[in-house]
Amino acid sequence: MNRKNLKNLFQEFIFVKIAIGTIASVFVWSISISTCFATDTVDLQLLSANEWRLVGPFRGGRVTTVAGVPDNPQLYYMGATGGGVWKTENAGLTWENISDGFFNVGTIGAIAVAESDHNVIYVGTGEKSIRGVTTSQGDGIYKSTDAGTTWAHIGLPKAGQISRIKIHPTNPDIAYVGAQGQIWGPNKERGVYRTTDGGETWRQVLSVDAQTGATDLRMDPSNPRILYAAMWEHGRKPWYILSGGTAGGIFKSTDAGDSWEKLTNGLPELIGKIGVDVSASNPNRLYAIVEAMPGEGGLYRSDDGGASWELKNKSRILWTRSWYYMHIAADPVNENIVYVLNAPFMKSIDGGMTFEKK
C-alpha cells in the first residue's frame, strides 16, 4: 500500500470517531501536584484517602495547561481555553487572573516556571486541543519576571498553537518551545524553537515540514541537553481533523537542540498525535501515548532512552479523543508509575502494562 492510500486509511479510521468532549479541570490540575509534593516533606500516605474535588476557578474556562512550583505546593498556575492565565497562592482556595490587560488573546497552550528563579514565567498562547471549530489561535510567547504581576510579549507571533515550554533548570534565559502550528492551514513556523537570551531572539531548531508541528516537548531531568519532541502531522478543516502520516514521530536531541534524530525502532510508521514523558527517577525510561491504526495505538515504553520501543498496552481508552487529550506524565519518584489524562484519568503502577481508572 502506498503512502497516500495508507495515510487516507488512517485518516478515515480516526475521523469517524470524532465526538465532542470536555477536559475536566480536576484531571489536568491533578497531575502536576505530584511533582510539587515530590520535593516536599509531605508523607504521601497521608493523602491516600483523599478524594478529588473541584478547586476552581469557576469562571476560568476549560483547563488546557497547569504549572506548579516544586518547593511551594501552595503556588499554582492554570491556563484556560479562553480565560487566560490564573494564579493561586493558597492551593486553590482563591484564584486571580493575571493575564488580563497584558495578553492579546485568552487561549493558553503552555505555562512554565523557571526552577532557578520562580519569578520567571513563560506562557505560550494557543491551546493544542484543536477539536472545536471555534478554537482560538495563539499569538506567541509572553514572559513575566515578577511572578505574573506584569507581562511582555517576546515573540513567535506566527507559531500558532504552543504545546509545551521547557526551561533550562539553572539558566532561565534558555528555553525551548514546542510550536504545534496554526490551526487552519500549513505554516513553516511549526516545530521546536530555542532561545538563549530570555526570549530576545528565537531560533527554529527542529522543523519537519509545514504540515508537522510539535505537539509535545520534554527535557531529560538529569541532562538539560537531552530533549524529546513529539511531532504531529495534522491539519484542521471546518468539517474534520486531518491527523497522522509518516512525517510525524518522536525526535531526540542530545546537543541542546542543535541536531535531532527520529526514533523509529518499535514505533508505528503511520503515526498520529503523541504525548511523551521522561521518568525523573530513571531517565532511560520513556513513556509515549500514541495515536495510530488499530492494534498499533496505545502506550509505548522505552527502557533505553528511546533507542527502542515496545507497545505495552493497546487499550483504546488510553488514546481516545486524541484531538483533546494525549497527555501523559511519569511519576517523579517511581519509574513504574505513569498517568494518562484522558476520559477517564488513568494510572498504572506496573510500567504501563495495566491501568486503573482514578
TrEMBL record:
- TM regions (residue ranges): 12-31
List this protein's GO terms for biological process. Answer: xyloglucan metabolic process
Q: Where is the Sortilin N-terminal domain?
A: 141-265
Q: Which CDD domains match?
A: Sialidase_non-viral (cd15482)
Keywords of the record, alphabetical order, are: Membrane, Repeat, Transmembrane, Transmembrane helix
Pfam families for this protein: Sortilin-Vps10 (PF15902)
Return the protein name. Answer: Sortilin N-terminal domain-containing protein
